[in-house]
Amino acid sequence: MSGYSVVGETTTSAFLPLLTGQSESEMPDVKRSHQDPEHIDKYPFLWYKYENHGYVTMLAEDEPHIGMFNTELTGFRDEPTDHYMRPFWQAVSKSDAGNEKHCLNGRPRHQIIFDYVKDFLRHYRNVSKFSVVHLQELSKEDSNQIQYLDQDLEKFLMHLDDTYMRNTLLVIVSDHGGRSSKISLKTLGKMEERLPFLSFVFPRKLQQKYPRLMLNLKNNVHRLTTPFDVHETLSDFLDFSRTKKPIVFSERGISLLKPIPLNRTCESAGVSTHWCPCLVWKPVSVKDSWVALAANKILAAINGATLKYSDKCERLSIKNVVEARIMVPNEKAYKYVEAMLSDDDNADFTGTSRIDFMHYLITMTTSPNNAKYEATVMMNLEEQTMTVMPDIIRLDKTLFIPVCLKSLSLGKFCHCSVTKN
C-alpha cells in the first residue's frame, strides 16, 4: 500500500490505532509517569475480539524493555494473549545470555521468534489462530541492519506459503520509516518516515470468493490509508457481512476492502498536518523572519515541556536552524470537486479554495545538548499567529532517556545538568 501513512511519532502511536481502532489520546491514560497508573489490559485490542470468535491468540516481541506498549505505557498486568513471549525475553535479558547482541546462544533472535511462530501454527494446525509479531531490535537504531533479516524472513515466508497460506491472512507492516539518518533531512527521507511499509496477502480461497473486495483492495493501493483502516479491515475478516454495509466516507477508519475516496484528506483520515504525506514542501530561507519566529516558538514549547523539572533539566537555546520549509496542500487535493471512485482520470480538479493557514516545517539544533529537532508550526494567516503542533521529533536519537529524568516523551527535551540532581 504505497499511500499508507503514519498517524504519530512512536511505535505505540502506530500500533494502538491498528490494534484498537483508537488513538492513545482517546484511551484511558496509562502512562508510567503517572502515580498509580492503571494497566493497558482494558484497551479493546483486536485479539480479544478474535478470542471471542474462538481463535487462539499470540503476541511476540523481541525487545521487552521497549515493547509496543511498555516504553511509555504501563504494559499489561495479565498476559494479554494465550501465548505471550515477553516473559521469555525478560528472563533472557536478566541472564548472561542477554549480553549477546542480536543473538541468543549463537542464533539470531529473529530466528527464535520465527520458530516460535512456526510451533504455534503447527500446534494449532486445525484451530483458528490470530498472532501479532513485532521485530524491532535490528532496525531500531540503524535501519540498514534490517538487511540481516532478509534471507531468514524470505525462508519464513516461503514456509508459510508452502504450508498455511491457503487459509491465512498475512499482514506485513512497519511502524514508521527511518528518521535518524542523514536522509531524514531530505524530502525523500521525510516521505520515507511518513509512509511505512504495508502489505496484505489474502487467502487464495477468499480471493476467489470475494473478487469485488480484492478489486477494492487493489484500487486502494495508491490512496491515502492509515492504521485505522487496517483495524477496520481486520475486523471485516471476522465478519465479512460488514463489507456490505454502506460506505461512510466521513468516518476516520475505512476498511481497505471498500473503496477509499479519492478526495480523502489527512484530516478526515486522522492524520495530523505534521505527518500528512499529501503536502507540497517548499524550501524557505532559514534567515526568513517568520522562520526565526517559528523556531523560537518551538524552543519555547521544548523548554515549557521540562519546566516542572527545571531542577534537573537545563534550559535550552537555539544553536542553528538547519532547514525550513513551508508545507502547502497538494494542488489537486485542494481543488478537488468531484471524482468517480473507480477511475482517477475522471476526477475534476477545477475548483478553487482559499488558504487560511500555512505550516512551517522547521529542523533546528539546540544547545547545550547538541540535539536536532523537527517540528511543525501552524500560522494563521488572518490573525498572524503561530501555534506549535503537538509532535516535536528528535532526529539525532530515536530512543533517549536521560539519567536524571526517566521519561521517553520528555527525556528527548532534557539535558541533565552536572550541578543538579
- What is the chain-wise order of helices and strands? HHEEHEEHEHEHEHHHHEHEHEEEEEH
Number of strands: 14
Spatial order of the strands forming the largest sheet: 8-9-12-13-14
Please state the structural category: alpha+beta
Our estimate of the beta-strand percent is 15-25%
Distance between the termini: 48 Å
**Rg measurement, Å:** 23 Å
Mean pLDDT value: 86
Flag low-confidence runs: 332-349
**Largest beta-sheet characterization:** 5 strands, antiparallel
Helix content: 25-40%
Number of helices: 13
Task: Characterise this structure.
- The protein has 421 residues and is of the alpha+beta class.
- The chain has helices at residues 11-20, 46-52, 86-93, 109-123, 150-163, 187-194, 204-209, 211-219, 227-238, 266-269, 289-305, 331-335, 408-411; strands at 56-61, 83-84, 103-104, 107-108, 129-134, 170-173, 198-201, 279-284, 317-329, 338-340, 343-348, 357-367, 371-380, 385-394.
- The chain has a five-stranded antiparallel beta sheet. Strands 2-1-5 form a three-stranded parallel beta sheet, sandwiched between helices.
- Strand 10 (338-340) and strand 11 (343-348) form a beta hairpin.
- Helix 1 (11-20) runs parallel beside helix 9 (227-238).
- The protein has 13 helices and 14 strands.
- The chain is 28% helix and 20% strand.
